[in-house]
Structures are given as C-alpha cells and as structure tokens.
C-alpha cells in the first residue's frame, strides 16, 4: 500500500480551519469541498489516459484523454458524500457508485447498510472517498468489496488518517493483490479510547450534516 500525505500550505491552512470546533456546518462543507479538489489533483496522478491528437488553429497537437473504462468514484456514506462534488469537479466523466457504511460506536466494527455499485468492476480504477481513516476497518471492508467485484486499482482519498489505521490497512490489504494508495491531507497523532482521531476534527458526518439519530 502506498501512502501519500499531501504537503501543501493551502491544504494545511484549510485543514486547520476545518479542525476548529467553532467552524459551522456551511463553512465545514465548503472547506471539505475545496480540500478534496486539492487532494484530487494528487489522487489522480495515476489515472489512466490514452493518446489523442487534436487540431490546434496552427497544427496537430498530441495530447491525452481519460481511458475507458471510466473511473468509478465511491463516496462512503454519510461523511464521504461531502467529498463527492470536489472530486467529480476534476473527474467530470467518472461514474459514481455509493457505499453506505456505519461504524458501531462500541465495537468500532464497520457494517454496510446500502450499496449501489456496478456488479462488474473489471479493469476499473476506483476512487474511494471517506474523510476519516480511524481504525481503518471501514476502508479495509470497502476496498475488499470493490476488489471482489473486479476493481484493479484503488485510491482512497481521506482528510485525516490515524497511524493505527494506516498500519492496520497495510497488514489487511497486503493480500488483495492490486495497488492501493491512500492520499490524505494529514496523519494525526493517535486514536483515543473511543476510536476518534486525535487531535482530529470530531465526527465528520455530524459536522457536515448534523447529529445522526
Ligand atoms: O476507520 P474507521 O474506524 O472504520 O472509522 C472511519 C469511519 O467512521 C466514520 O463514519 P461513521 O460510522 O461515523 O458514519 P457517518 O459517515 O454516517 O457519520 C467515518 O466517516 C468513516 O467512514
Ligand atoms: O475521529 C473520527 C473517527 C471516526 N469517524 C469520525 O468521523 N471521526
Ligand atoms: Mg459519523
């Protein structure tokens, strides 16, 4: 597994405001959107392209276009939905599949409550969106789900990751047999006893959308 920490002053600045407990939901949503577009630039570094030629007003120019099959962007509901627009802004021709997952607050185990993902992902590059990589359980399960359907290249885009979760994913995803990359704006200090990232930003879903019932 490859881990890329996006080290850029604009990312660090926006992340600082995002962490601030005083930042309200509308601002949190706006900053999430902006951060994802900056992260998407790094996350799509390996997107597959094929050569094309276009006529400029002067001559033929060699260029590239995104290769088929189209990339699939997969936000993990709920919080990953806040990252969708920022990602498809850079990849407007991508298709979007949805995975609804929730982590039990006591056992910290993730479970899937909804999915709308193509049955056959053979040859597809997938971009998983989830702001928080805490224990890594949610991301490990979502990567396995996509690999079982044939995805052959997966990049996860996160805002924050915990070192414990990254270590867990490195062990778990060793055997999936395809390249997996995690792109994150920062790796934080540790997980607390409730499985929250420290210093983190709190519950990303709640900060985006309000307290879930
Ligand atoms: O790495 P993990 O320990 O698995 O935790 C990370 C997951 O926890 C949060 O989801 P949550 O269960 O709070 O659902 P929500 O997005 O609906 O708030 C977060 O959005 C991730 O999906
Ligand atoms: O810190 C954390 C950990 C899991 N999920 C969140 O939203 N925040
Ligand atoms: Mg949540």
Class computed from helices, strands and strand pairing: alpha/beta
**CATH topology description:** Rossmann fold
What is the total tally of β strands?
13
Low-confidence stretches: none
Termini separation comes to 35 Å
Question: What is the global morphology?
Answer: globular
Count of separate structural domains: 1
| Known CATH architecture | 3-Layer(aba) Sandwich
Pathway: Pyrimidine metabolism; UMP biosynthesis via salvage pathway; UMP from uracil: step 1/1
GO biological process, one term: uracil salvage
Domain Phosphoribosyltransferase: 5-210
Function: Catalyzes the conversion of uracil and 5-phospho-alpha-D-ribose 1-diphosphate (PRPP) to UMP and diphosphate.
Give an account of the 3D structure.
With 213 residues, the protein is of the alpha/beta class. The chain has a single domain, classed as Rossmann fold (3-Layer(aba) Sandwich), CATH 3.40.50.2020. The protein contains six helices and 13 strands. The strands form three sheets. Strands 1, 4, 5, 6, 7, 8, 9, 10 and 11 form a nine-stranded mixed beta sheet that branches. A two-stranded antiparallel ribbon has the order 2-3. Helix 1 (9-19) packs antiparallel against helix 2 (25-43). The longest helix has 19 residues, at 25-43. It is globular. The protein starts with a strand and ends with a helix. Magnesium ion is lined by residues 79, 203, 205-206.
Features:
Rossmann fold, 9-stranded mixed beta sheet, 213 residues, 31% strand, binds magnesium ion, binds 1-O-pyrophosphono-5-O-phosphono-alpha-D-ribofuranose, transferase, Uracil phosphoribosyltransferase, allosteric enzyme, UPRT, 13 strands, binds uracil, alpha/beta
